[in-house]
Design brief:
Length: 606
């Protein structure tokens, strides 16, 4: 017997002012579905998800959820009003005794559940909203950009949670690696139409290109037919006016069909101007360190940046990646050591906080109000890579339409703000790009284009990102900051970093891995002597395992108390089954962690 779908949308139409966002849209989400929802910025992904969640009412059509089916939605800007702490918000709606689920999620997502809502950052609020959704464990999860503001470790934790869940989910994300790992089917929004392919995300780009190629061929055939019929109409209709009115009407219908076709949005006309060439040595940092109070941000560290290098900085949130880059660019001074810049440096910065954008001014004013872009006394011209451009024409290069030009920056989506910031920095010549989380909110097509133009850029790139796929595509060197102020340099991108870190006691370590202290003696040490010692990552793991063991033991105790209620099985069998499964999972995790601690402790003693 076929199971009822979790969610069914039938003949949905929705219009916000002008053109319809959707018209006649129908789709079904089945039990066990793991759907990637993809499309260009502004195509309606978040709107569609809000329709699914019942937060936006369609102009026409029906949204059906069977009785007893729970649907949970994680939005990009959660409303935490009425809650004192992040944990209180995340635990809302949970049964007594289930608060431990929030603690588990808070540890994995790296936020403090005791932090007051009033002092929490936007990223912490989003992580609390994600923890709330995971703790509630609905039948269908709707996740809108859940990886934004997560570091790579937290993304990995979330990836594992979603891979193991029995719930269905619909997922919006720009993170290719995340989508490839989780999606079994793809929903593609393109010009108000939603197409579905029951293959993983890795098949999406080939499917998209094949669809567009077929569309172009059909349009070409239609154009040829209209041209032929139009020629007939001009040459032959006068002699056969009454007999051929049907053919004339058919020609009009063909022209109407062609004019009603929605043109595909092109890609942004993005380009960097590398300006004058910098010196071969761009930055030389020697023995630099930094502390804030008792907290060590960076232990003594050496780095030489050469012209053309693409260096990615990775590590947990708060590990000091942005602080290190600000020291390298001279924005802040190190506590010890020196930073020397090469000649002719022109630095352009993409700031993840979008601090260069004033939310209250229009897009027009955001560009013309920049002294470095202003063209004399002209209020409608901006200087773009040495040439004057009309501000509207330049904004159209970045896919902004006429209606948006005079709108406030604060009305833009996250992806649109990222494009506006790119428009600002791309207008100016530079030979050193500092990109701090540039991939947040950008759609996949724009990410592809950004990757391509970085490949053609003659200058140097310093990149902070949690997008593993983007790091692999762009970086030729990775600096890992994994806590305790230590930074380690690896050759290659994210995948190369993982491989070298796992093999950091092997023979290649002396060549591929350069420690933060820059010690040549340590790099030249025989592999045999290093193999007996714990790596930095292993030692950090040895130090943190006792806390993990204590946490697991506490969770097991809480679950034991919860399951000890003799009425639980008969009164709430679903919660009894969920808690029993959670108990078994934590008992397995505790046994594994104990074995890991014993193995590391024995090696450390040896």
């Amino acid at each position: 017997m076929a199971r009822a779908p979790l969610l069914q949308l039938s003949d949905i139409s929705l219009t916000f002012g002008g053109n319809p966002v959707f018209d006649g849209l129908s789709l079904t989400v089945q039990q066990g579905d793991r759907l990637a929802l993809v499309g260009r910025n502004g195509s309606g992904k978040s709107t569609l998800m809000k329709v699914m969640a019942g937060l936006v009412e369609a102009d026409r059509g029906e949204v059906v959820t069977p009785a007893g089916t729970s649907v949970g939605y994680m939005e990009q800007d959660p409303d935490l009003s009425g809650f004192a702490t992040l944990g209180e918000f995340a635990a809302a709606g949970l049964a007594p005794g289930e608060d431990y689920l929030v603690d588990v999620a808070a540890e994995g997502l790296k936020f403090d559940p005791h932090r007051p809502v009033a002092t929490a950052s936007g990223g912490e609020r989003r992580r609390a909203a994600l923890a709330r959704l995971l703790a509630q464990a609905p039948d269908l999860m709707l996740l809108d950009e859940p990886t934004n503001h997560l570091d790579i470790q937290a993304i990995g934790w979330l990836e594992r949670q979603l891979a193991e869940t029995r719930a269905a989910f619909v997922l919006i994300s720009h993170d290719r690696a995340f989508l490839r790992a989780l999606a079994r089917s793809t929903l593609w929004i393109d010009r108000g139409e939603v197409r579905r392919q029951d293959k993983g995300f890795e098949a999406f780009e080939d499917w998209r290109e094949a669809t567009w190629a077929a569309e172009d061929e059909a349009r070409h055939k239609l154009d040829r037919k209209i041209k032929a019929e139009g020629r007939w109409a001009v040459e032959g209709i006068s002699a056969r006016r009454k007999r051929n009115q049907g053919r004339v009407r058919a020609l009009a219908a063909l022209r109407q069909e062609r004019s009603s076709q929605i043109r595909r949005q092109g890609t942004a006309a993005m380009a960097f101007d590398s300006g004058v060439q910098s010196g071969k040595r761009v930055i030389e940092a020697r023995d630099i360190s930094k502390s804030f109070g008792d907290r060590m941000i960076l232990r003594p560290f050496d780095l030489r940046v050469q012209r053309g290098d693409r260096i990615a900085f990775v590590g947990p949130n708060g590990a000091g990646k942005t602080t290190l880059i600000r020291m390298l660019t001279g924005e802040i001074a190190p506590d010890t050591g020196t930073v020397v810049h090469g000649t002719n440096l022109q630095i352009a910065v993409f700031d993840q906080n979008r601090s260069a954008l004033d939310e209250n001014v229009s897009l027009w004013e955001s560009l013309t109000g920049d002294p470095e872009m202003r063209v004399g006394g002209r209020a409608d011209q901006v200087m773009v890579r040495g040439q004057p451009r009309h501000v509207v024409g330049y904004l159209k290069d970045f896919l902004f339409d006429d209606a948006q030009v005079r709108a406030p920056v604060g009305s833009l989506s996250g992806g649109e703000k990222a494009r506006l910031l790119l428009a600002r920095i791309m207008a100016k010549p530079s030979n050193l790009l500092v990109l701090d989380e540039p991939t947040n909110d950008l759609d996949i097509e724009t990410l592809d284009l950004l990757q391509d133009i970085l490949g053609d850029y003659d200058g140097t790139v310093l990149l902070v990102s949690h997008d593993r796929d983007f790091i692999d595509r762009v970086a030729d060197t990775t600096i890992a900051m994994e806590g305790d102020g230590r930074a380690t340099t690896y050759a290659g991108g994210w995948t190369d970093y993982l491989a070298q870190r796992q093999d950091d006691a092997g023979p290649q370590a002396s060549v591929a891995v350069r420690t933060a202290t820059g010690s040549a003696a340590a790099a030249a040490a025989p592999a045999k002597s290093r193999a007996a010692k714990l790596s930095f990552t292993e030692r950090h793991r040895l130090e943190t395992l006792p806390g993990e063991l204590a946490r697991l033991e506490a969770e097991i105790a809480k679950l034991g108390e919860f399951l000890a209620d003799p009425q639980l099985y008969s009164a709430q069998p679903a919660k009894f089954a969920k808690a029993t499964e959670a108990l078994s999972e934590r008992q397995r995790a505790l046994a594994s962690a104990e074995d890991e601690w014993l193995a590391l402790a024995e090696r450390d003693d040896a």
